[in-house]
Automatic annotation (TrEMBL):
Top-level taxon: Bacteria
Keyword Lyase belongs to the record: no
Domain Aspartate/ornithine carbamoyltransferase Asp/Orn-binding as annotated: residue spans: 204-349
Boundaries of every Aspartate/ornithine carbamoyltransferase carbamoyl-P binding domain copy: 62-187
Name of the protein this chain belongs to: Aspartate carbamoyltransferase catalytic subunit
InterPro entries named in the record: Asp/Orn_carbamoyltranf_P-bd, Asp/Orn_carbamoylTrfase, Asp/Orn_carbamoylTrfase_sf, Asp_carbamoyltransf_Asp/Orn-bd
Protein's UniProt keywords contain Cell membrane: no
Swiss-Prot/TrEMBL keywords: Transferase
SUPFAM superfamilies according to UniProt: Aspartate/ornithine carbamoyltransferase (SSF53671)
Gene Ontology cellular component list: cytosol
Similarity comment text for this entry: Belongs to the aspartate/ornithine carbamoyltransferase superfamily.
Entry-linked PANTHER family: ASPARTATE CARBAMOYLTRANSFERASE, ORNITHINE CARBAMOYLTRANSFERASE, MITOCHONDRIAL
């Protein structure tokens, strides 16, 4: 089935007004200008599936999901009570603000219900219960579970008895796939030709990733999705204090791509060449948070290329100056704003409820 856009679409993203927004807020309509239809047969790949890694998304699947998110953000799909019969468990055994609240907001806006675990100390894990047994309990309490955990192997343990879809909300230093969906949804609204056409060499993007994909989950998942758009990315530069910021697993994955990937330890040397800068400085290593790459800072005085945009999954510290907030380099607030809609789209696809909702 193909869902078509309405003949006339209101370009105002209610209820926000552009003059009240900080930074760039590209119109979701941008994603629908060339291909204003959604191929729901592609989205069926996600039906009742667990979302564990960014690697499960091909380019076509991801782009159809982004178009669905754009329809949702433009309020051109009737979504009230679509998931009235579904319950989502948000099991966050590690602190979270944006991921947990955006998933809960997405579910509630779709008419579903939510159960929350805000910290491990409030669960029976504090009494020594295994994740295997907790996974079995989720089968009785919910229809989908979003999990964040400090350990990489937590998802594997939870999945042992789990029979409902599991969404990875961040597992240790491994991956954060739905953060990457939010990141690239913002980028495709900003420049939809990345997905819709092949750019001339002079217009291909140079991406800068400030961080260490080998042990920073948001950075790793962002890099994985970046490789989907190889024909329109000229080069990726990893800016890191580490000599080997990728690690063996990520390096093997990147070796299969045609995009040249460079490593630099000097941000100022490359910043003026970059069209997109993705940065993060917080990593969970061992049993605690570390602030990696604290020497790499961006401000309005950093010599950013004209038209360049910055992404940051937040929370930030002093690596990203607030003096960039009210500039057109700021795409990070839009990145956070769009997270609800891409997660709404994901939940609709997982529960196979897209076709029942016409434009």
């Amino acid at each position: 089935m193909v869902i078509k856009a309405a003949a006339k679409i209101d370009h105002e993203v209610d209820p926000k007004k552009k003059e009240d927004m900080l930074g760039l807020y590209p119109n979701p309509q941008n994603l629908l200008e060339e291909h204003a239809t959604i191929d729901t047969s592609v989205l069926k790949e996600l039906s009742f599936s667990s979302i564990l890694s960014a690697r499960m998304f091909g380019k076509l699947l991801f782009c159809e999901l982004c178009k669905l998110a754009a329809f949702l953000q433009l309020k051109k799909m009737p979504i009230r009570d679509v998931l009235y019969d579904k319950i989502m468990a948000a099991a966050f055994f590690e602190p979270s603000t944006r991921t947990r609240l955006s998933f809960e907001s997405a579910m509630l806006n779709l008419g579903g219900k939510t159960l929350s675990v805000a910290e491990a100390a409030t669960t029976s894990i504090a009494k020594g219960e295994s994740l295997l047994d907790i996974g079995q309990m989720f089968n009785s309490y919910a229809d989908v579970v979003v999990v964040r955990h400090t350990e990489q192997k937590a998802l594997q343990d939870l999945s042992h008895y789990l029979r409902i879809p599991l969404i990875n909300g961040g597992n240790g230093s491994d991956e954060h796939p739905t953060q990457a969906l939010s990141d690239w949804y913002a980028l495709l609204k900003w420049k939809p030709e990345i997905a819709n056409s092949k750019l001339e060499d002079s217009k291909k993007l140079q991406l800068g990733i400030i961080g260490t994909p080998g042990n920073m989950r948001s950075v790793k998942s962002f890099l994985i999705l970046s490789l989907l758009f190889s024909e329109n990315i000229k080069k990726i530069t990893i800016v890191s204090e580490m000599a080997d910021p990728l690690g063996e697993d990520v390096q093997d994955f990147c070796n299969k791509s045609t995009i040249p990937i460079d490593v630099s330890n000097d941000l100022q040397q490359v910043v003026g060449q970059l069209d997109v800068l993705y940065m993060n400085a917080i990593a969970y290593l061992g049993d605690s948070y570390r602030h990696l790459g604290s020497q790499f800072k961006l401000s309005s005085k950093s010599g950013l290329k004209k038209g360049a945009v910055i992404l940051h999954p937040l929370a930030r510290r002093d690596e990203l100056s607030m003096d960039l907030d009210n500039t057109d380099h700021n795409l990070y607030f839009n990145q956070a704003d769009g997270a609800v809609f891409i997660r709404q789209a994901l939940l609709l696809a997982i529960f196979d409820r897209v076709e029942n909702n016409s434009i």
